[in-house]
Design brief:
The chain is α/β, with parallel strands linked by helices. It has 2 domains: 131 residues, Rossmann fold, CATH 3.40.50.2300; 72 residues, Arc Repressor Mutant, subunit A (Orthogonal Bundle). Helices cover 51% and strands 12% of the residues. It is built from 11 helices and 6 strands. A 6-stranded parallel sheet has the order 2-1-3-4-5-6, sandwiched between helices.
Length: 229
């Protein structure tokens, strides 16, 4: 089986040599070359036969974000894997927006790097295990913001009704989060949304709203809030 050919663009030669040493025992991947200078790499770009480009972000003459953009302009089918120390969402977002398929930290083990290269080489996305929580948390926050937009013109969602009923039972955010298997931050976002939509000031106001709009009765009739048994 022909090994996948990777090429590194990173200004830290010791790190590159370390990757070289680690890949010696990996028959499926071959590091065919490297550049310490992004511009020098671009000058050679057309002559290279590479399956996956490993790109650092923080380089003195040109950032990996700009370099990724330039690579994609020259070859829209290029497969790029960001290999960096940055674990924040903004850098992840910027790299992905430039066409980068994978994002992995330099602290990852060689096994994860090999998996990342294989995944990216076939055009699939790969996010390193150390930063998956960062990405998921940001996606959750963005989803919450979308739900919160134009909130006063909206009606309560099914989830908000669930949370409203738990609030008027005087459950804390933590208790609601555990009961619904969501994060406390998500509960807090929903709580703000509910208060804005109902124009209520607190639990008592929400209770009055629930009675006025027959929310409590409706749920009792379906057995969801029935405590008579």
């Amino acid at each position: 089986m022909t090994p996948l050919k990777i090429y590194m663009i990173d200004d830290h030669k010791l790190f590159i040599e370390g990757i070289f040493a680690l890949l010696v025992d990996e028959p499926e991947i071959e590091l065919v070359g490297y550049s310490l200078d992004p511009q020098e790499f671009l000058n050679r770009f057309e002559m290279l036969d590479v399956d996956v480009y490993l790109v650092d972000i923080n380089m003195p003459k040109m950032s990996g974000i700009i370099l990724a953009e330039m690579i994609m302009k020259r070859n829209k089918k290029a497969k790029i894997l960001a290999l960096t120390m940055y674990d924040d969402y903004q850098h992840i977002k910027k790299m992905i927006s430039k066409g980068v398929l994978g994002y992995i930290l330099k602290s990852a083990n060689i096994s994860e790097l090999v998996t990342a290269v294989k995944t990216v080489s076939v055009g699939k996305r790969f996010i390193g295990s150390d930063i998956q929580e960062t990405v998921m948390s940001q996606m959750e926050e963005l989803q919450n913001l979308e739900e919160y937009s134009d909130i006063k013109k909206s009606r309560l969602t099914k989830r908000e009704i669930e949370i409203l009923l738990l609030i008027i039972r005087e459950l804390s955010n933590k208790e609601i989060a555990e009961k619904l298997f969501i994060s406390e931050r998500t509960v807090e976002t929903h709580r703000k949304s509910i208060l804005a939509k109902t124009n209520a000031k607190g639990s008592l106001g929400l209770y009055k709203y629930a009675i006025k709009h027959a929310i409590v009765q409706a749920h009792q009739m379906t057995g969801e809030e029935n405590t008579s048994n």
